[in-house]
Amino acid sequence: MENRTLYALYCATVVSLGGFVFGFDASVISGVVGFVSVEFDLTPIQSGFVVAAPTLSGVFGTMVIGPLSDALGRKKVLLVIAFLYLLSALASAFASSYMMLVTARAIGGLAFTSLMIAPMYIAEIAPARLRGKLVSINQLNIVIGLSAAYFANYYILGASESDASWVTDWGVDANIWRWMLGVEIIPAVIFFLGLFLIPDSPRWLISKGREEEAREVMGRLLPSDAIDTEIQLIRDGHDVESESLWHRVKGIFGPRMRLALVVGIIVGIVQQITGINAIFFYAPTIFEQSGIGTDAAFAQAALIGLINVVFTLVAIALIDRWGRKPLLLVGLSGIAISMAVCTYGFSQATYELTPKGLLEIQQIENVEEHFDTSDLDNMLGVVYQSDVEFKTALSNSIGTSAAREFESQFIKSSTTMNAVLILLGIVGFVASFAMSLGPVMWALFAEIFPNQLRGVAISFVGMINSLVSFCVQLFFPVELSVFGAALTFFSYCVFAIIGLVLVAWLLPETKGKTLEELEVMFAKRQ
What we know:
The chain has 526 residues and is mainly alpha-helical.
C-alpha cells in the first residue's frame, strides 16, 4: 500500500476513534439501565429517558455542529467532542441521582455529533476510489465500540459475583453500573490525544483561503501532479461558501438539492425507525423477555456485538464493489424478514406461573423483603397469552416496583417460548443492519450533498435522524409494557418494508464518483 493511501487510512482511523467512543457510550447503557432503574426506582418512561437523553441533546448538537465545523474546522470541533465524551463518562460514573445521571449522559449526547463530523472529514481527505471504505471505518469503530461495551458489561457483571479480593477492594460488587460507565474514560482519553496528530481537512483550509496549508496536506494524500486539478475543483464547488449561514440554510431547500435532501431524509429516518437502537441499547432487556435470565441475556448481547463487527467488515469489503444501493436493498430485506421472525416468536409465547416456578422465586435471596410470595397464589396455573397480560397480573399481585425489580426472574420461570427463534431474528436483524444502513447511511450523507452546503445539510438530516432515534429509545420500554414485544417488533418490520420500497425507487448509485461529479449528477436528476 502506497504512503499516500496509508496516510489517508491513518487520518481516517484516528478520527474514527470517536466512533468507538460513541459505540461504547451508546451500548454500555444496555447493561446499566436495569441497575439504575432499581437503584433510583425509575418508571418505564424515566428508564427510557436515561437511555435516550444523549440522543435528545444530540438533536440540538446537530443543529449547530455542521455550521460550527464550517466556521472552526473539522479538527477543532472533533477536539471539543472528545472532551465532552470524557467529561460525560466521568460525571456518569459518579452520578448520585437520576437527574445527575441524565444530565451527565446529555453532555455525552452533544458529543454524538462525531457521527456527522467524522464521515465529513474522512470524505474530504479520501481518494474517490476508497471513499466508501474509509468512511466505513467510522462505522466499523462504532460497532467495535458497541461490542466492547457488551463484553465489558458481561465481564464486570461476572466479576461482581466472584469472590476475588479486588472486587471488594475496588467496590465492583457494590457499584456494578458505575464501573460499566467509568470504563469509557479510557477510550475517550485516547481519542482526545490522538486528534492532536492529524491535519485539518484540505477542503476546509481552501474554503478559508489557507491554500498553502491545504497544499501541504494534499501533498501527503495525492500525487503532486493532481494537486492543482483538485484545488481547482474544490474552488469551483465553493462559490457560495462565503454566503451567510441563513443563505446556506435556504440553499439546502433549493431545487438543485431536492433529490439529495429527500434521499438523505428517507435514509436517515429508516435507519432509526426500524429499531436498531432499541436492539443495541436494550439488548439484555430484550433477551430477558425471551425467558433466558439475566446472565444469559448479557452473554447473548455480547454475541450481538460480535455479529455486528463481522458484518460491518462485510460491508466495508462490498461498499465500493457492489455499491451503496444494492447493500441497502439487501439489508432492508433482511431487516424486514428478521423482524417478522421476532414478531412470530413473541406472538407464540405463553406465560404460566407453576408451583415449580414459584419455588424458584421463593429461593431468590431476600425476596421476602420485597413482597409476600403468597400474593402470587392467584396467578398459579393461569396461562397468559401475552407478556403484557402476564406483567399486568404480576403488578396487580405484588406491586409495580417489585414486579419491575424481579421481572427477569419471573419471566424466566414462567415463559414457554422458542428463545432460539428470537435469537436468530435479532442476529439476522443486526447482521442485515451492519452490512447496510449502518455504514452506508453515513457514506451517503458525506457524498450526496454539495461541498459548499455539506455541513449545513448533514446537520439537518442528522437532526432528523437523531430525533427519530430519540423517540425509538425513549418509548421502547413503554411500548414493551403497553403493546408487548410482538407488536413492537411488527412495527419495525412494517417500517423496513416501507424503507425498502422508497430506497429502490429514489436512490441513485454513488460509488466511484468524486464529490464534485456527484453534485452535478444529483442536480441533473431533479
